[in-house]
Structures are given as C-alpha cells and as structure tokens.
C-alpha cells in the first residue's frame, strides 16, 4: 500500500489585516529504494539512490555473505560506493567478507571499534589488500548520495567499551521521507541521542538490536514516531527476538511492524512524498518476553552462571553432587566462532571455574586462561558449554 507524507502544506499569510491561504505542493522526485535483506539473525541494508549511487550497511553472518552478494548482483550491482560496518559483531560484518571478495567498493566506513575476532581481522586485511578507502566517522558527519538524499551519522563511538554501544547510527532523509537505522545501539545510545537533541524523527525505523529489549526505549520510540518499523532477525532464534516488550512499545506508538524473519527481504521505495513497503505486516509469530534455550540444550550437572564481557570472564559451576571431568568439553563464542577446549581437569560438586580472556587473562586457582585476545567484548555473542557428546548443556547470552 502506498502511503502519502506531507503531500500538501498550508501556509498562512497575514497581509494588511487580511488572511490568505496558499497551497504548496511537494513535487515527487525520482524513486529511491531501501532493501532490508533477509540474512537470518543479523542485519544487512542496501540503499539505492536515484542517480545510481549505492550503500550497503552490514552483511549479516559469514554464512549469509554469498546470499548478500547474489542479491546485490541480481539488482545489477557490480560496484558499491559505500559499505558501512556499523560495529564488529559477527552477525553484522561476517557477510561483508564475501562482499569484499566479490564486489568493487569505493569507500569502507567502519565504526573504528577494534575487535580481535578472526572475522574482524580478515575484514580489515581484505580492505587493506584491495586498497579501499577506509573511514571512521564522527557524529554529525554527512554522506550525500545525491542532492536530495542526505545520510547523517547520528552516533559513532570507537572508544565505547561495548560493541553495541559503538554502533554507527544513520538517518537518511529523502525530501519528506526519512529512515533511522539503529544498528545494535542500545538504551544508552538512545538516551544520549535524546539528551543531545538530535533529530531522530523518522518515517521508517530499523529497530536496534533485532528487536531486543536492550533497545527501543518507549520515550525514544515516541520521539522517532515511526509510521513503520523494520525488525531484522532470524525466525526461532536463540535470543527470543523480537521481545514482547518491544512489540508492545511499537504498537503503542501506532507503528506498523515488518520483519525479515516473516516477510523475507523487505523493499521500501519512495519518491520523497509517498512510500511503498513491498511486504506483509508482522503477524506476531516468535515474540517472547524472555530468552528461551534451544530445544537441543540438555539440562546437566555443569552450567554457565555468568559472562562478564568487560572483564572477559566466564564462570561455570558444577551443580551436581559428584565431580565432573571436563576434558573434551568446549566453551564456544557463538557469533565470534571461537572455541576453548578444556584440559584434563575435574570440577568438584558445588565448585566454580572461571575461564578468562583478554589482556588480563590468567591461570590460577579455579581459573583457566583461554587467550590474551578479546573474546567476549560483544554483548550479542552467546556462550555455549558443550559436553564430550557434542550436546549443548548450557547457554548464556
């Protein structure tokens, strides 16, 4: 259905005590399109300007990269003017590896947030090897795809302690139609945007963090006042996205809701006056108020009890009444695709064991060192504990 925004503006002129009403019409422009590509549990957004300039924002997980490339080529894209990596989480940059290997890129815009995952390092190596212009933006920067299409950087923080907090937040404006693209920005970023008085109002909102309740504060959504909201997530994902609290907030704001999980790739076209969403609205399948464990997870005697992404410490505990030998068990960083294999060690009943990583990683009493590299500086990265049978016995987001 085509929606009309700001088609008719009324200006009241008071001249010599007389009131005159003048009608002013906004002329439609050439059509542009924003594609919210279905990459499962992740983000990938493709913007086509009327003059042919292009921008790709994120690429989903590594396994989705071939699909993103195939989709772009099906649109006739052999060159991208801009590629934006909003932050270094694997579900945003993984697919960009295939894009870098397959499509010519003029300029790569990165959050600047350093991560030590293999995926992030591979991405940087490809950018350098291909001699692609590399830019780290600041809040207030503008990217002009054409005269009438301005994309503003509302937030970017390479010094953020958490990957999600480092998300590049973009607002694209095409005459009367606007798009607010939140990456994985959470409540803290939303509050900061409001406090700084940023113009966050937008016709279309791409909700932060896949519909997680760590994003989309009621007051923020109210300020955005979106007519439609896009949720990019994978059906039956292990995080329980979208969370029921977020759906409730969006519905109270009278926003239409669309999801890539249900509709697949969602394409929005606009001439600056009207817009059209080529998708069916979200039906409600998959919303939950809590994060359920996948059916494959078995209850067991050893479980993950905490994960500190800043101190890089994961703690497991033996909740049974007998010792458990952990040799052959594995601790996995799901999105980072990194694995720690436990040595021949026995965990006594009721006892805890810490697995440390990052610069302060160490081995000691009830402590094991995984790596001096950062593993968990990524709040969207789930931890999984896997036994010798390959069963997931515990999971923690």
Which labels suit this protein?
28 strands; 2 domains; 397 residues; Immunoglobulin-like; seven-stranded mixed β-sheet
What secondary-structure arrangement, pairings included, does this model have?
Elements: E1 2-4, E2 8-15, E3 18-25, E4 32-36, E5 45-48, E6 54-57, H1 65-74, E7 79-85, H2 90-93, H3 96-102, E8 104-110, H4 118-129, E9 133-135, E10 142-146, E11 149-155, E12 169-174, E13 177-181, H5 187-195, E14 204-206, H6 218-224, E15 228-231, H7 244-252, E16 256-259, H8 260-263, E17 266-270, E18 274-278, E19 302-308, E20 313-318, E21 324-325, E22 330-333, E23 338-341, E24 346-347, E25 352-357, E26 367-371, E27 383-386, E28 392-396
Parallel strand pairs: 6-7, 7-8, 8-9, 13-14, 14-15, 15-16, 25-26
Antiparallel strand pairs: 1-18, 2-3, 4-5, 4-17, 5-6, 10-11, 11-12, 12-13, 17-18, 19-20, 20-25, 21-24, 22-23, 22-27, 27-28
Helix pairs in contact: 1-3, 3-4
């Amino acid at each position: 259905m085509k929606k009309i925004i700001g088609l008719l503006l009324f200006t009241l002129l008071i001249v010599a005590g007389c009131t005159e009403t003048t009608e002013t019409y906004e002329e439609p422009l050439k059509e542009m399109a924003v594609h919210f590509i279905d990459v499962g549990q992740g983000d990938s957004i493709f913007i086509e300007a009327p003059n042919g300039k292009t921008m790709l924002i994120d690429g989903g997980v590594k396994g989705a990269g071939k699909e993103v490339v195939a989709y772009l080529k099906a649109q006739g894209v052999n060159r991208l003017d801009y590629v934006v990596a909003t932050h270094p989480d694997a579900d945003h940059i993984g697919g960009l590896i295939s894009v870098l290997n397959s499509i010519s890129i003029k300029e790569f815009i990165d959050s600047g947030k350093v991560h030590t995952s293999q995926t992030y390092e591979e991405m940087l190596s490809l950018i350098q090897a291909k001699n692609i212009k590399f830019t780290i933006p600041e809040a207030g920067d503008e990217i002009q795809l054409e005269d009438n299409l301005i994309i503003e950087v509302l937030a970017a923080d390479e010094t953020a302690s958490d990957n999600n907090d480092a998300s590049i937040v973009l607002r694209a404006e095409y005459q009367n139609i606007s798009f607010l693209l939140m990456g994985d920005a959470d409540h803290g970023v939303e509050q900061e945007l409001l406090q700084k008085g940023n113009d966050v109002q937008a016709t279309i909102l791409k909700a932060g963090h896949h519909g997680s309740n760590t994003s989309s504060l009621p007051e923020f959504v109210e300020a955005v006042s979106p007519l439609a909201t896009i949720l990019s997530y994978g059906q039956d994902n292990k995080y329980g996205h979208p969370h029921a609290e977020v759906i409730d907030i969006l519905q109270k704001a009278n926003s239409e809701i669309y999801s890539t999980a249900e509709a697949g790739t969602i394409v929005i076209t606009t001439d600056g006056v009207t817009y059209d969403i080529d998708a069916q609205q979200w039906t409600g399948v998959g919303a939950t108020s809590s994060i359920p464990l996948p059916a494959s997870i078995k209850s067991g005697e050893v479980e993950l009890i905490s994960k500190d992404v800043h101190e890089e410490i994961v703690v497991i505990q033996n909740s049974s009444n007998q010792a458990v030998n952990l040799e052959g068990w594995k601790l996995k960083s799901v999105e980072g695709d990194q694995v720690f294999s436990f040595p021949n060690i026995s965990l006594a009943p009721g006892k805890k064991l810490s697995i440390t990583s990052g610069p302060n990683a160490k081995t000691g009493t009830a402590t094991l060192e995984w790596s001096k590299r950062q593993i968990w500086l990524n709040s969207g990265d789930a931890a999984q504990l896997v036994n010798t049978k390959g069963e997931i016995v515990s999971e923690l987001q």
